[in-house]
Amino acid sequence: MKEDIDTSDIGFAWPGSLRKFRRLVFAGLVKNAGKTTAFNAVNRYFARDALGITSFGFDGEDRDALYDAPKPPVRAYSGQLLLTAAGFLGERREPGVLSGESGRAFEIIESWGDHPQYGPWLIVRCLRDVSLRLAGPSSLPELTRGMKRLEALGAGRIHLDGALGRLTHLSLGSAGVILSTGAALGNSLREVVERTRLVLEYFRLPVTGESGLRSGVSRGAESRVNLLLPESQPRSLGLGGVQDAAEPALPAGVFGSSSAYQEGDRWHNLPGFLWARDLRALLPQDYEQLYLAGALTDRLYLELRKARRLPRTLLLDHPGQILLSAPLWHGLKARSISVRLSRRPNLVCLTLSPWHPRTPIATTELAAALRPHSHVPLVDVARELIWRPGFEPQGNRLI
């Protein structure tokens, strides 16, 4: 029996809106959320473009490690560039060329470094359409170097397949972000919607502007802020669809790799592993702001609360740092603690997957439940369906 679909909320122009971003980052909220399916669908749309493809870690395994369900390989097309470890690309049967079971597959363009399991990093050009597994750099500096090389070698676009739970790539400047969620995120529709809704809320957190952080920054950090931040740049968030390109604010790591707190008009650096420190001794009472270079976890929040050293405002570089459980997130908000980002990633859309090993959920049901909470389009890439966002901000606030 054919499902009833409210076609008034469905469109088919989604791929075209992706062209405004020269870099796209794909991230799943949970394993089996359909991230690789979305990645392949977008790669197929740009099949004849000068596209560079890589991953943040390993992706494209044959079968799921938890449920032994088949997993889709990564698809790439003739002429596209790949950055991956050599171990997945076939045998070198002639100089500069790697071949698989179906013959010549990749032209080797560059090689450097070494993956501990899978050999050196290679940049190759596809000689035909291929299916493969990817194992890209797992450190942000190495990944950034590789993407710059892809662009220097002619890639007009970069598509990055993110690794599960490794959301640091959400801080990649002006890249567009495609998130994937689905029935695998919980054991009921309500659970999936609540977990996804929280992540969407994190992506709407207010951005702290340059002026709010420059005042009183320690001397060494202040010069770095001045160098890295223009005096004024436009910023906007298209709540009716795709966000505009990168919103400027405090770059990640203005305080080096350390956290810091603001008391009065001065910032003071903090040591690492705050959750294991004597927070009463480290932090004053009633201070203004706490900048976290690492994750905001349940343990850190509870230690701050226990020590009575919660700030008025928490500053983070990107929403991927928020690892709080839902009850503690709601508790933080109930205490009127403001959470702000140094930049808001450009969330392009949220893709939906019905897959669950026991209790699948139709994407029409997921879309109906998530639309009121989403400020970006919802997409079923397998069925080529799109639902317009239904989130309506309260006044000028984004959450």
What's this model, at a glance?
With 399 residues, this protein is α/β, with parallel strands linked by helices. 21% of the residues lie in helices and 26% in strands. It has a twelve-stranded mixed beta sheet with strand order 6-7-8-9-5-2-12-1-13-21-22-23, with helices on both faces.
**Contiguous helical run count:** 9
Rounded Rg = 22 Å
Global morphology: globular
DSSP, total strands? 23
- Low-pLDDT ranges: 1-12, 210-254, 395-399
Look at the structure and give the CATH class of the largest domain. Answer: Alpha Beta
- Main sheet properties: 12 strands, mixed
Report strand order across the widest sheet. 6-7-8-9-5-2-12-1-13-21-22-23
Mean pLDDT: 80
Q: Approximately how much helix is present in the residues? A: 10-25%
Q: What's the number of structural domains?
A: 2
| Strand coverage percent | 25-35%
CATH topology of the largest domain: Rossmann fold
CATH architecture of the largest domain: 3-Layer(aba) Sandwich
Give the N-to-C terminal Cα separation: 39 Å
Structural class: alpha/beta
Walk me through this protein's architecture.
With 399 residues, the chain is α/β, with parallel strands linked by helices. It folds into 2 domains: 7-203 and 345-387, Rossmann fold; 210-341, Cytidine Deaminase, domain 2 (3-Layer(aba) Sandwich). 21% of the residues lie in helices and 26% in strands. The protein has helices at residues 35-45, 140-152, 189-203, 210-214, 219-228, 279-282, 298-306, 326-334, 363-370, and strands at 23-28, 51-55, 58-59, 74-76, 81-85, 91-94, 97-100, 103-115, 119-126, 130-132, 134-135, 157-161, 176-182, 260-263, 266-269, 289-291, 296-297, 313-316, 322-323, 338-341, 346-353, 378-380, 385-387. The strands form 5 sheets. It has a 12-stranded mixed beta sheet, with helices on both faces. A 5-stranded mixed beta sheet has the order 15-14-16-18-20, with no helix packed on it. The chain has a two-stranded antiparallel sheet with strand order 3-11. α3 (189-203) packs across α9 (363-370). The radius of gyration is 22 Å and the shape is globular. Mean pLDDT is 80; it is low at 1-12, 210-254 and 395-399.
